[in-house]
C-alpha cells in the first residue's frame, strides 16, 4: 500500500462528504449502507469500492474527474435529453426498482392503447 493510494482514497471520501454535506465517516457509511469500519479499512488499505461511490454520486451529476482526482468542475451540466436523464436515473436504481419502473411504463402504454381504441370506436 503506497502513501499516495491512502491519500487518494482519503481525498475521494472527503469530496463525497463535501457533495453530500456530511461531516463524518459514520454518516457516509450509513448512506452507503456499509459499516463505518469498512470506510476505515478503505483508508488503511488505500483501496476503495468505487462502484458504491459512483452509484451514489451519479444521480447528482458529479464530475468523475473532480470526484476521483479533484480536477475540473464539481458538477457536470445536467442532461437536457429526457432519454439521457432516464438512463442516468435507471443506472442508479436497484434491479427491483428498475422492474417497478418497467411495470409502470408498460401499464401506462397499455392504458394509452385502450384510450386510443375507445376514441376510434
UniProtKB/TrEMBL annotation:
Domain (HTH cro/C1-type) ranges: 26-67
InterPro entries assigned to the protein according to its UniProt record, in alphabetical order: Cro/C1-type_HTH, Lambda_DNA-bd_dom_sf, Phage_CI_N
Any single biological process term in GO: negative regulation of DNA-templated transcription
Domain of life: Bacteria
Coiled coil start-end: none
Annotated SUPFAM superfamilies: lambda repressor-like DNA-binding domains
Gene Ontology molecular function, alphabetical: DNA binding
Name of protein: Bacteriophage CI repressor helix-turn-helix domain-containing protein
Organism name: Desulfocicer vacuolatum DSM 3385
